Amino acid sequence: MTGGKNVLVIVLDALREDSVVPSFEEPDRCFKAANCIASAPWTLPSCTSLITGMDATRHGHFWHSHALGASDLVRALPAEFRKVAFVNNSVLKRNSQLDSGFDHWRYLTGHTEPFERAATLIRKARRRKPLFLLLHSNISHDYYYPKASEYYDEAFPDEPGGAFVLGDEVIRWTGTTPAQRAAVVKTYEASAIKAVSSAREVLELARARDDFISVVVSDHGEGLEYDEARIHHGGRLHDDLLRVPLCFDLPSAVPEGQREDLAAALASAPVAVTDVLPTAFALAGMGPVPAVDGRRIGSAPAERIVVSEERRYLYLRDRFRLNVKGRHRFMSLEDQQENQRLLEQLAAEPLLRSYRSKSAKLMVTGLHFRPRAGSAAEARGDVVGWGERLLGAPVLVLHGDRLFAFELFNLTDDPSERLNLLAADGSGMDRLMESGREMSVTVPVSDEGEDTEVSLPTMLAGAQRIATN
User: Fold this and answer.
1) Relative to the CA of 460, which of 8, 40, 404, 467 has its CA 20 to 30 Å away?
2) CA-to-CA distance for 192 and 226, rounded, in angstroms?
């Protein structure tokens, strides 16, 4: 290992890719990814992917009760490293199991203290005891809490008192007017500005030392489109939640060739949040990085497919967010009762996956139903009813006791993911088959009581397309 290279990773929770203005970029030093994709659309599973380097499809860590092994990446750091994390979201407390391998893991409730503690450690870092510092901030995530009003007045001093704080209505925006919804978006913007400026102050301290490999990244984005039912986070896999900012800031000791290779790779092929630590540790001279799903950026194939997954939440067309085995935060009693009614119809948690290349994305939603008393027509009516409540305009396919919904988007022509190419003309099923082969898509089916992952074309061969109203 090359001595004296520290690693700083700043995670700005729920920061959309289009909210980083101005950028952290700096010529010949700080390089931005054109397309960085999160492994999941909310904090626990996506931060798990960041720290372990494992895709959410493999670690399955959507609940604290799910056993999670120690991160090979963190444990593989040389013994002389001091490994410290300051986290700012309650789902990242020690019960998240993400502290394994760290010397010090501290959950901090306020927005200021994580940055202050990080700044102190950066100033004190010593060559003989290199530092791996993970700094997580919830400033942009918490735009729906009262503190965001202060950030609004700071960001927009000519519009004091203009913030609108959603509070308990954050997952549905219930009862809001168009003017209030516009104020929500601006309140989020103010929180994002505060998060970015706070991160920049810490980054400048690391830059001044010139011995830190620094990374600024987000774990997921945020939904702000009420009319499209794309609000809050979790429960869906559109790019407003999965496409996140990522910047690498390199000290002068990193050779020019490595800088050029990293800059070129970040500007071309999609990269994943799982790539962050393998890349940062390699740039710090750690040597061979343990084999994980993430790869050193620049070594991944140019035509890579990035897979993201969600299992705990499912957003529906009426902005209802199904919550599986959760604490039901922000849900009214009526919402909780509806949540239970819907869960009783399912044999397992919903499965949401997206397969994303540089220019295309295939989204899959899978629902596994319990056996239903009554006629086949009634059971089919329940399935169709679920299909009609799903977001967007998915193509629905029934395979045994499972309903699958598919959407395919051309991200070059349709970056907002409005037009499902599978529903645009009569060739939808043929196009779905071909996309499944090209992206190596798999889906679960029942095989003698056990779930088995099969290729999408194989599943479709025995499935039936169904229509909704």
Assistant:
1) 40
2) 19
Going through 138-272 in order, the beta strands assigned E by DSSP cover 212-217, 223-225, 230-232, 243-244, 246-249, 271-272
CA distance readout (Å), 225 to 70, 142, 291, 310:
38, 17, 39, 20
Q: What percent of the chain has a predicted confidence (pLDDT) above 70? A: 96
3-class SS of residue 352 = strand
Write out the two tokens for 84: 């410290």
3-state secondary structure of 412: coil
Query: What is the domain partition of the chain in residue ranges?
Result: 6-302, 345-466
CATH class of 6-302: alpha beta
Neighbours of 132 (CB within 10 A): 25
- CA dist 431 → 196, 233, 303, 355, 450 (Å): 41, 29, 19, 15, 29
Q: What is the distance between the alpha carbons of residues 164 and 359, in angstroms, rounded to a whole number?
A: 36
Kindly report, residue by residue over 98-118, the tens digit of the pLDDT: 999 999 999 999 999 999 999
Distant-in-sequence, close-in-space partners of 4: CB < 8 Å, separation ≥ 6 = 127, 130, 211, 253
What residues have CB less than 8 Å from 24, skipping those under 6 apart?
30, 32, 196, 199, 200, 203, 216, 247, 249
